[in-house]
Design goal:
- The protein is mostly helical.
- The chain has a single domain, classed as Double Clp-N motif (Orthogonal Bundle), CATH 1.10.1780.10.
- Helix content is 59%, strand content 2%.
- A two-stranded parallel sheet has the order 1-2.
- The longest helix is centred in the N-terminal third of the chain and has 17 residues.
Length: 197
């Protein structure tokens, strides 16, 4: 599938791998893909984000919101609200765990005091960070979106679109910042009209 990716899309995937490695995460998650998209400049995805007002301080706001979700063990606000309805205060649990185990203990990042991935620690698949199911789903969704738009190649804009249609933290954070599938489709020129960078 990666042979169908544009240079910009391949750079996003590489950037996501780098983000996961820097965090000490055992795998690339969909949030790492979004962080890598935020790092891009001069691509269709970065232009679409800028057109929707996500540049400068707003990009930093997206990064902070992703980090806050990671501190909640990757729970979206909707999931935290559902747990609150059951009498479970996620903020209180995070505070207690971080008090006992350090800041970021629930993030899954080894450098932040999170859990260790025993497969990586034992040399399983040495030197290689794998992809979480959610990030694989984003890559597959990007392919479906490119095909549906009749684009020959998968660009970083397709990865961004895919993040907006999959439920979870990246879609929630993007929507909070005015980036939805509908707004992106409008900025990118509608169905079947976007080039692939």
């Amino acid at each position: 599938m990666f042979e169908r990716f544009t240079k910009d899309a391949r750079d996003v995937v590489k950037g996501a791998l780098d983000r996961a490695d820097e965090a000490g995460a055992g795998r690339v998650e969909d949030g790492h893909l979004l962080l890598a998209l935020l790092d891009r400049e001069g691509s269709r995805g970065s232009f679409a984000l800028a057109a929707l007002g996500v540049s400068g301080e707003r990009r930093e706001s997206v990064r902070r919101a992703l980090e806050e979700a990671r501190r909640r063990a990757g729970l979206s606000r909707a999931e935290a609200d559902a747990l609150a309805g059951l009498g479970i205060d996620v903020s209180e649990i995070v505070a207690r765990v971080e008090e006992a185990h350090g800041a970021g203990a629930l993030s899954g990042d080894r450098r932040a005091g999170g859990r260790k991935d025993s497969r990586r620690d034992k040399g399983w698949w040495p030197g290689r960070t794998g992809f979480a199911r959610e990030s694989k789903d984003v890559l597959e969704q990007a392919l479906r979106l490119a095909v549906g738009r009749r684009d020959r190649l998968i660009g970083d804009e397709h990865l961004l679109l895919a993040l907006t249609v999959r439920p979870g933290v990246p879609a929630e954070v993007l929507a909070d910042h005015g980036v939805t599938h509908e707004s992106l489709t409008r900025v990118l020129g509608g169905e079947g009209e976007a080039g692939s960078g």
